[in-house]
């Protein structure tokens, strides 16, 4: 909800489109609020920027006032959707809801960015069971998941909204990335599991973006507040460009 008006959203998307030509080696996806999807999709049309939704409805039928279906999001330009974001989970999106949303996304052919993550990290490693449960409930015996249609975003809630100094350390992130891949292989075909991109989200800034990618063995970043300002977002792109 950082950007509210279509005019501001168009300005952001157009500015990003101009500036990304300077920075190579990054795939860029942005997920505006539902009300801004048409404006952003139009501004990004013909560019390399992918546009998606921040969430979708779990329901297939039409009798759900206030919801936005996967088909509706797709119709106004979404090619992907975020599912299970930590803030959505905090507001009540259970594992069952996430599973239903994932099914709706598959039915519409949307690429899925599936968010997982623990609220706190304990020394005994009990937090790993949370990751296992989140992935298992979403993906176990999942039908019709085409290659390239799944991305997993690991966002430890305890790091979100803090400074780069509080972000996860590269070595710890590498261990989690390996654990996620291993868990994925228990629910989808192993070769496919190894190809699923892993993103990291949680206190991502220009000062730590490259280190997270290189030391954390992840393929991308799920950027929060730093993505709402064009200059701060571009600084992250600059820091990771080849």
What does this structure look like?
This protein is an alpha/beta fold. 41% of the residues lie in helices and 11% in strands. The chain has helices at residues 6-19, 37-44, 70-75, 86-90, 95-107, 127-139, 170-184, 190-195, 209-216, 230-240, and strands at residues 29-30, 50-53, 80-83, 111-116, 150-154, 198-200, 220-221. Strands 1-2-3-4-5-6-7 form a 7-stranded parallel beta sheet. α6 (127-139) links the parallel β4 (111-116) and β5. The longest helix is centred in the last third of the chain and has 15 residues, at 170-184. The protein starts with 5 loop residues before the first helix and ends with a helix.
Strand content: 5-15%
Count of DSSP strands: 7
SSE order in H/E notation?
Answer: HEHEHEHHEHEHHEHEH
Helical stretch tally? 10
Give the rounded overall mean pLDDT.
Answer: 94
Output the structural class. alpha/beta
Low-confidence stretches: none
Query: Within the largest sheet, what's the order of strands?
Result: 1-2-3-4-5-6-7
The main β sheet shows up as: 7 strands, parallel
Shape: globular
Distance between the termini: 31 Å
Rounded to the nearest angstrom, the radius of gyration is: 17 Å
Query: Which range best describes the helical content: under 10%, 10-25%, 25-40%, 40-55%, 55-70% or over 70%?
Result: 40-55%
Helices and strands, with pairings:
Layout: H1 6-19, E1 29-30, H2 37-44, E2 50-53, H3 70-75, E3 80-83, H4 86-90, H5 95-107, E4 111-116, H6 127-139, E5 150-154, H7 170-184, H8 190-195, E6 198-200, H9 209-216, E7 220-221, H10 230-240
Parallel strand pairs: 1-2, 2-3, 3-4, 4-5, 5-6, 6-7
Helix pairs in contact: 1-2, 5-6, 6-7, 7-9
